[in-house]
Amino acid sequence: MELVADKMVSDYNDTDPRGVPSFLYHLGDVVYSFGESQYYYDQFYDPFRNYPAPIFAAPGNHDGMVAPNTSAETLAAFLENFCTYGQPPHRTPEIRRLGENRASSTWGLFYLRSSVRSDPRAL
Q: Residue 9 pLDDT > 90, yes or no?
């Protein structure tokens, strides 16, 4: 993910201001494996630490998964990281972004999930 995030940061070096993005709309699977709080720093905050624009996100299926036999609620970590006011839970001095970029709780959530199998014949 870091290579992808670093490439996205390089888009801000474009000499034509029309080519510079205004924000990132992440279309889901912000974290992989399980969408629990402990995965956000390594899988989201750290890779996007230098991204200078606001980041908005829609949760994907991995963001809603929780590990079996845990007390975590589905989408709780996503909501905590993207849909509440205040400081992000994993903010550190070297990760300067996101504090001012979080969506308010009045923003709507769109849960995107494809039921199409990986088999290309299913398309």
A: yes
